[in-house]
């Protein structure tokens, strides 16, 4: 009786959704925008990579420059993180059938070679001898050390670089473009150092990805875990040994659970919280950059933070809501409607405006979740994720909605519309020429801070690829959980060696 009543209530509620959405998408316009902006974003990335990038004269071959902006702010450097997040977008392009682009192979190989050099540069964080130098966040574009004071070390750089090189290595192995030996000799020596760094230093404090606070950072922990899991499989494929990876990865996964705030139904991204709420794009970026298309949504309290997990969805709601009343551009964008989002509400850097890449990531997480639901054939609405779903489908109750049901279609369509809304926000505030800066003004939406930010372009490409259902290969999240309990603060000393790269057969053919 009670059950039937609830189902009726739910059905009625679902029936009214479409009209309650003020954000009616003009699909043609969004599709057209994506098409046009995709070529601009591609060119934008290529413009910022040495040595041939049109906007980065003086950059070493394969060096990814953060932005051509040389003042207010000066981003004319290469950050290990930004490069590590950009390279996978290039690898993904190679895997698309129509894009057998040898120029991209050349860039990827030059990137690898440049990183072999970069790893060995002694710097204010330390040197390669004991691995400490790998934590240095940024270098001059001519591959020399940057010696001024900075938030260092940043321990997300090594795992992101390892994952980027593993993505390229796996692409080469899968396509049979080059020999296992070439991958082992050109990529593995670099990857091995970065993985050793993670097994040795994961449990020591770090500056966060915004280079502001020191402690533990959720994003850093999440990408460290992913790197060790895929590093183990990569080593195996090459007949190499990923020393300590299998032993340490579960401990990092355990530590990842310690950021969850059950009361707030959100991730406290920095520990200590440094006087902030803890709601931060850090967690959204962690979800999209550790997305595994084959991972389950469950394993809630011992698993990875998959985009479709209840925790990641509850966190998405809390995060997006924290910006609704903050920015003038969000006027009229109430709960359940996509909004412009920044890094975190307390942000004042360069005005603390909304960011393109975080708004894109908010959409990307939902496209990821949609992919995972469709693959698994079911959407689980749990007590934890209920507030997220209620905003989109009022009256929905906890339960498992299978793809044969009307509710499944209703939820899926509502989430897709919500996800598109974030791209529509980006579309609205993208200037005529299509350049994506770092931020856009909170009141008038005009671009602010660094122009042509490489990471903004990469974020655009990955978000729109996911929208088309293009996903990266699995990195093994399925086999990685559940995390052990209790957590153990163990580490394994790494072995480091100056990477000596061999020759690229693919590269040689290109010359
Ligand atoms: C590298 O670039 C930095 C910053 O522009 C400059 O100060 C330095 O002299 C350059 N070093 C070399 C060897 O070109
Ligand atoms: C080290 O690991 C323990 C156990 O997971 C954790 O409680 C602690 O916060 C970690 N510290 C850092 C700096 O990662
Ligand atoms: C529902 O999901 C299952 C499991 O993924 C799949 O085999 C089936 O084709 C899906 N059905 C529809 C109608 O999408």
From TrEMBL:
One of its GO terms (molecular function) is glucan 1,4-alpha-glucosidase activity. Residues 1-22 form the signal peptide. It is an enzyme of class 3 (hydrolase). Its EC number is 3.2.1.3. GO terms for cellular component: fungal-type vacuole. Pfam families: Glyco_hydro_15. It catalyses: Hydrolysis of terminal (1->4)-linked alpha-D-glucose residues successively from non-reducing ends of the chains with release of beta-D-glucose. Keywords: Carbohydrate metabolism, Disulfide bond, Glycoprotein, Glycosidase, Hydrolase, Polysaccharide degradation, Signal. Belongs to the glycosyl hydrolase 15 family. PANTHER family: GLUCOAMYLASE, TREHALASE. This is glucan 1,4-alpha-glucosidase. The lineage of its organism: Eukaryota, Fungi, Dikarya, Ascomycota, Pezizomycotina.
């Amino acid at each position: 009786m009670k059950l039937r009543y609830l189902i009726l209530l739910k059905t009625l509620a679902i029936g009214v959704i479409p009209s309650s959405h003020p954000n009616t998408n003009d699909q043609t316009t969004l599709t057209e925008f994506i098409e046009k902006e995709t070529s601009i974003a591609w060119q934008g990335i290529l413009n910022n990579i040495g040595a041939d990038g049109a906007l980065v004269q003086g950059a070493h071959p394969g060096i990814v420059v953060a932005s051509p902006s040389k003042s207010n702010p000066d981003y004319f450097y290469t950050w290990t993180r930004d490069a590590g997040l950009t390279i996978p977008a290039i690898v993904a392009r190679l895997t698309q059938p129509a894009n057998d682009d040898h120029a991209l192979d050349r860039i990827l190989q030059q990137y690898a070679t440049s990183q072999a050099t970069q790893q060995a540069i002694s710097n204010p964080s330390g040197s390669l001898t004991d691995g400490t130098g790998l934590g240095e966040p940024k270098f001059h574009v001519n591959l020399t050390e940057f010696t001024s004071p900075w938030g260092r070390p940043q321990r997300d750089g090594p795992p992101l670089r390892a994952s980027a090189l593993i993505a390229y290595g796996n692409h080469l192995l899968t396509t049979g473009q080059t020999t296992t030996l070439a991958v082992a000799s050109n990529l593995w020596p670099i990857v091995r150092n970065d993985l050793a760094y993670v097994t040795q230093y994961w449990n020591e404090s770090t500056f966060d990805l915004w280079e502001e606070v020191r402690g533990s950072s959720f994003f850093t922990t999440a990408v460290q875990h992913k790197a060790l899991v895929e590093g183990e499989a990569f080593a195996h494929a090459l007949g190499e040994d990923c020393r300590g990876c299998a032993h340490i990865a579960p401990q990092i996964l355990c530590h990842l659970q310690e950021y969850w705030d059950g009361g707030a139904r959100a991730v406290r991204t920095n520990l200590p919280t440094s006087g902030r709420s803890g709601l931060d794009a850090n967690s959204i970026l962690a979800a999209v950059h550790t997305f595994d298309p084959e991972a389950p949504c469950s394993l809630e309290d011992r698993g990875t933070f998959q985009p479709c997990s209840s925790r990641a969805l509850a966190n998405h709601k809390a995060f997006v809501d924290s910006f609704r009343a903050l920015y003038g551009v969000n006027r009229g964008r109430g709960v359940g409607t996509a909004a412009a989002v920044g890094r975190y509400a307390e942000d004042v850097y360069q005005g603390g405006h909304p960011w393109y890449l975080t708004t894109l990531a908010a959409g990307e997480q939902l496209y990821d979740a949609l992919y995972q639901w469709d693959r698994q054939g079911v959407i689980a609405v749990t007590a934890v994720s209920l507030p997220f779903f209620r905003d989109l489908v009022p009256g929905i109750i906890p339960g498992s909605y299978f793809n044969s049901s009307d509710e499944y279609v209703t939820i899926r369509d509502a989430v897709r519309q919500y996800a598109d809304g974030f791209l529509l926000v980006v579309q609205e505030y993208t200037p005529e020429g299509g350049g994506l800066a770092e931020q856009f003004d909170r009141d008038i939406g005009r671009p602010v801070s660094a122009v042509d930010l490489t990471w903004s372009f990469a974020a655009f490409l990955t978000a729109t690829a996911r929208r088309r259902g293009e996903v990266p290969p699995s990195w093994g999240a399925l086999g990685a959980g559940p995390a052990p309990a209790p957590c153990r603060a163990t580490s394994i000393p790494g072995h480091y060696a100056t990477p000596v790269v061999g020759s690229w057969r693919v590269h040689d053919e290109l010359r």
